[in-house]
Amino acid sequence: MNRSLCFILVKNQTYGDQMKKLILFFFFIGIGLSLPAQNLFVTSTSPVHGAENVDQDSIKITFNKKITFDDSTFTEGLQIPFLVLPFDSIQVTQLRLSDDSLSMIIEGNLADNTDFTFIVLDAQAQDGDKLGAPYLFRFTTNATAGQFVVNGKISEEEMAKMKANSAADHLGGLTVILSEETLDIGLDFDDSEEGTEEEEEENDPLDAAHIALVDPTTGEYSIDGIREGDFFAFGLNLFSPEQENVGFPDLYIHDPNEDFNLDTVKVNSTDAPTDTLNNVDLRKLLFEPITLGEAFSRTSSLNFSEDVEAKAGIANIPLVFDTFEDPQPKQLFKGLPVKASLQDHQDPFFDPENGKSIIWSMYFYDSVKDSVYLVGISPFGAQLIETVSSSDLDIPVSISTLNSLPENFIDSDSAAAIAEMNGGAAFRQEYSNASFARVEFVAAHAYWEYPLDNTIVAPTHWRVAYEAEDFNFEFKQTNDHEGFSQDSLIFYIDISTGDLLYKAGNNLEDGPSFNVVSSSPTEGDVAVNSDTSTVSITFEAPIRFDEFGFFNNELEIIPFPLDSINIVGFDLSDAGRTLNFKVLHTADTDYTWIVSKARSTAGGVLERPYVFNYTTSSASGSQSVAGSVNTQTESNKTLEATNEFDGVMVALFTSNPFKDDGNGSESEGPDISIARAS
To answer: What does the pLDDT read at residue 422?
Structure first.
């Protein structure tokens, strides 16, 4: 069975959120149709197609067989067997069968001076046969019909694809909209400016509509009765009622120069001197996720000057959730919020395995105006969302210090492949049933958060971050525990070479070992402030802590003497590599800090302990102690390290730490000064 299509021409309207309504309308009229034998067809109508100056209070459609229908489905607002356009052009008072059951009769009042389009969407014969395809006819209550005819077609390639799939359905349609405003077929990046319900009804794109069925063998269409005006044409290929309704239907647009902007169809005596306008052809607009590279290419339509450079590209791709609106962390480039409703990540809007999204956001910097442009990109093109001063951008550095995205960068599909093969695919599988999961792609010279060197020399990179959260109510009830868990897996990939620079995660093990690189105060510092001051320890790699800010048993840092120091808080800086303690010291006291254990976000362990000594006194002690450690055992064999900390520490104690003199308390530690030995 060939698949039928239809086109609609609609008089120019301001076009807002109407495309969504249009799609949903056609979506619902196609639900629930069964497909038995399709030998039912329309034999005549009253008024006839093309009738002018119609003055009657009923519409009659006659079939080749006796039909049946339950008029309660119409009165209850459920599936209806026909469509009359414009929607408010007729007040239906009764829907009934003729006495011989061969005709469906719609009684009602027709609006004056109106061009009508009537489509029989579905009908069922008493013997079970179904209507093979929608049937369309047009008439007008005006004295005369429009004088012009518009002809066009869709590509033979697309028709071949549709015919190959036509055995499964018999209802389809393409819609052509005419608007004085450029038809906005992009995604709605900002719904704060949505019109009122009254405004949307006033701008209904189906008002003054003209519809024609496409010849299923040639892909050609012809619409007569068109009045003079400027129009934009697009075609909407409806869902099959026998197929899963996922995403948007296919969309076809009249866009000869393929710039994703609909070209004007001028219907007048000059452009159509014979009253016939030909070659209003439509191409299929692929509504499918794209890579950052494909998104970047679409921004050329914005015609930025040469002073404007791309600084970042971001996509937030949901993996598992019901609804998601990202709260957007501070001090990072923020992608446009994603709003969707999914069953799982196998959705036409997102393709995380291949680094593709239906929405990308990009930041562009104008060095002359010192302005930042936030651009939203969809398969339909690019849209300037916001322009702000560089000082208003919520990142901790000036955007002028960032490298621009290189001309030839590793695209998001390659970045995704690297992440997937190094654990991303397993992460998605593990959290396929989590309460929330997503993967974020960020391409930028975001050096301030680069884990190995958060300075300007950090490479421009991809940050591919998998995140998951889960809440197990049953676990909470059973274990009297909050039942909340969180995990992440983050990849840093060189955007020019594709090299995997760093891999971080909450549960990674066996990462490269690392060491402490510095401390503040440094070894031997004197006259350290005894009031509140900061003690900082900087590692070669970011250190790991859990979602509550605890280090669990993966970090051991001990200051001595314990009874002369009070730690009041801590935080992390330098992309997680520096641990800062807020402490209260005691005056005229020598301090020793021992860092004996730590784990990096990559799962590596501290290679050797780190010790540093300082004092709040005005000067350090004048005496020194030197010596060596005997590494020979009694059997004259060299002692070999048997644990992960390959180092030896020597401590000088003010009292014997191995003898309990009964004067101490559990909260006190020995007064010690430690020297490091090889």
So the answer is: 96
